Structure prediction request, 553 residues.
Amino acid sequence: MKVMAQLAMVMNLDKCIGCHTCSVTCKQAWTNRAGTEYVWFNNVETRPGQGYPRRYEDQERWRGGWRLNKRGNLELRTGGRARRLLSIFASPVQPELADYYEPWTYDYRTLTEAPLGDDFPVARPKSLITGEDTKVTWSANWDDNLGGTSELGHLDPVVEKVRRESEEKIRFELERTFMFYLPRICEHCLNPSCMASCPSGAIYKRSEDGIVLVDQDRCRGWRQCVTGCPYKKIYFNHRSGKAEKCTFCYPRVEVGLPTVCAETCVGRLRYLGLFLYDADRVTAAAATPDPQDLYEAQLDLMLDPADPEVAAAARAGGVPDDWIDAARRSPVYALAKTYRVALPLHPEYRTMPMVWYVPPLSPVVDLLAEQGHDAEDRATLFGAIDALRIPVEYLAELFTAGRTSTVTNVLRTLAAMRSYMRDVTLGRDPDPAVPASVGLTEESLYALYRLLAIAKYDERYVIPTAHAEQAHDLEEIGCALDVDDGPGMYESGPFGEASGRPVPVAVETFQALKQRQTSDTPPGDLSGRVNLLNWDGNGRPDGLFPPPKDGAS
Prediction:
């Protein structure tokens, strides 16, 4: 047994309001430069919808992820080495710019400098790729709030699959419509197909925390990783000719800070923590014959950090004691393994994803309340789960390769928690039969409620810091911005290209950054180096906020 540590994330979809704050702050921190105009390391999709890039889940077309060959062994969907070598110079199975979108700005100069006249000037959209006039026809969340779903909803690959099995399950009439938000980042998989697809070996998985990064010095821009990733979370920078991807904000997590998307999330729906897993069994788990068994196979990989044998094996493998302790307090382990309410996204891709989701329950509660029912009553909730506006079959295709019983059990657990806590809140004697009906005790159900509803900052983010002796080894070797002269490859600053003096990803050394994040005293002068990646809320640098109006404090 080879025990390794993996940083992971859980998102509670019941809390996502689709505000896109996570997307905007991620883009501000990581992709606000030339060549990455269309790149969203974090994006929020409205489901049902085609996603970003368009129909990325259609692996019959894009051939991402893994499959089993005739001998039952894992192989990339793109085929063996010989087949991939034939397509190394021209791969026809990669999303084109139209599948993402042609990024644009507006002709603000015409708007602001047009001479006085009878007609109001128009700021036409201009392509950021060609500089010519363009027509805006697609974007990163074109399905936003079901916009156009009545006409385009059938193009959602998950809708297609569910409809093939039952035409009546998903319709788009107003009275039956449903929607929820699905935030997505790189899955930082245990069995990453992007890494296996890279001809130059530029993509690697950090042994200390499992974060998957791109070594920019080794990347040759073959773009095989774009094809190999079934989630399409690797992007090609047309300016640098390199592949880039979500870095899990590793300069932040190394000093114990959450990722930018988690830190700025309005709904507080993201949880960060550690898994301990058996690296020797990853390949066997990913080769589980029945795709619907992959969820359980992935759960079996996650080891109990409270087990003395697991802890001893982790120490023998070089996992520090404070990391083992963090794994014992990990909220992602609790939600995924202890309470079994978090599910992986598309386990059938066989990449063993490490970003998990608590499926949404709130639409059924809203519907029951609108119909005059007691929406928090256990019997009412349990009976309505099978008639959700969000069909269980749709959620199952996203999170369990189609196994509806697993999703139903998760929704029943969430419904039981709501029903039980309603009695507690109203001062009534809670019914112990409620948690027992979903296999939990009263204490564990309350602990689940606390974690999902009122968990404090240090309960949602249990992130062990890197050790000082590792600091030099962890410096920016895999950073997607480590090219030529730093971010953007030319004069740049914390607010985009040419916005100030050059600011690398980590302005300070490891020790200096750690001191600034943990010190009781505010930092000194932050002028000229304020960005969302390194700013932790301490101090108020000039220019960070608009100046107060006259007379305001």
About this structure: The domain at 267-460 is CATH 3.30.70 (Alpha-Beta Plaits). Residues 472 and 545 are 34 Å apart (CA to CA). The chain has 24 helices and 17 strands.
